[in-house]
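Researcher: I'm preparing a figure for a lab meeting and need a structural model of a single chain. I don't have an experimental structure, so a prediction will have to do for now. The sequence is pasted below. Please return the structure as tokens so I can convert it later.
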Amino acid sequence: MAEDDLESLPGVGPATADKLVDAGFDSFQSIAVASPGELSNTADIGDSTASDIIQGAREAADVGGFETGASVLERREQIGKLSWQIEEVDDLLGGGIETQSITEVYGEFGSGKSQITHQMSVNVQLPREYGGLDGAAIFIDSEDTFRPERIDDMVRGLDDEILEVELERREIDGTPDDDDALEQLTEAFLDRIHVAKAFNSNHQILLSQKAKELAQEHEESDWPVRLVSVDSLTAHFRAEYVGRGELAERQQKLNKHLHDLMRIGDLYNTAILVTNQVASNPDSYFGDPTQPIGGNILGHTSTFRIYLRKSKGDKRIVRLVDAPNLADGEAVMRVQNEGLKPE
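Model: Understood. Here is the structure written out token by token.
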């Protein structure tokens, strides 16, 4: 949207418009869903002026009012489902990972959380008729987990039918048995995964804001951003804010980070996939003592919560713990060299 459009809002002149655009607030919609504090800090304006700007943007963008249930249903029909390429897991999740939602996957070390983020970075690029979303992926890496070699394994592990479609779609000469063609195909997949390593929690929050800019930049392209993965969401926050004295500040920053991510999902029809670490509850005498960290902030913000548990060998139990419209349940998958596979 042109900067001149922003100047039609109350209290926005050329200088303020420039500051808003530079900070990523370059549309009525993005301003309408912002808080007065965000605009105040961004554009060096008072809270009262920021509130007037937001109210003007809400009126211009026609957001913030009530709508009928039928309208909600129509809007939800735009939501995409990203397939795991595992029928049992897709059935458990109602078709796959939803866009415009935060899906949290938690589990102990080695349970396969990072394997899921890698696999979804591949699957999101597939055509919709094969369970993908015809889109690119953003990968925010806080634990140095991203491995291009793993993407290569997973691309080669796709079904031959899908490989043939992808080779043709990306104009690569060769067959699924041609190693040179598969190497080119892996490079094509990697080109659609935007990776950034987060060095601390503040940097991680900044990267989520940069991810929003990237999603906006590619919104009208052939490869819009359809997946944002954060692996892991809580590692830096857990390490930097130790003890009860810093709990409130940690939760406040984590809450802001989650809402930044949620905004990307809402504005650009993107699936948000986050992994989470766990802790053992010493007061638990019965059942599994493993609990996700992040407290109620993360529990309430995540739309879907998935608990990943080790089983025998390469088997993993995928348990749906919480979802707004799905029953709790479990499914089984395998983590193999070729990626995530059915039991």
